[in-house]
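Thread: "does anyone have the structure for this chain?"

Original post by V.I.:
We have the sequence but no experimental structure in hand. Need at least a predicted one for the grant figures.
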Amino acid sequence: MHDLYTLIQKIKKAPSMYLGRHSIICLQAFLSGYSVAKHELGEQPTKQDNDFMSFPEWIRKKFNVQTSQSWANIILFYCEDETKALDKFFELLDEFIARNSSDILGEVGVNVEQTVQVVRS
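Reply from O.Q.:
Generated one for you, tokens below.
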């Protein structure tokens, strides 16, 4: 799988199938495993992989916090539970992607408007 944001959209549609339960911490573990697996296979990071690497700093700025906590823990702190935090993650990711979607999605030959629409749905 070379399209990180498409993978995340699949997870959004069926979180329990990919994560075991509707949990932001499980998502974080899944995405870490995805990253490690790509590295172990010798695959180079894609534009979307590189873009997502700036997500933790974007979250810190969004919530105006200076912490070493993970993006998942920051979102969880501001939500009632892991389920709501996962839902909030998807909202925040939509906003994150939209900030410069033409740069990231357009460079990999993806229809930007269509992908942002899919991401938002």
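V.I.: this helps a lot. The chain is about 70% helix and 0% strand.
O.Q.: and Residues 4-120 form one domain.
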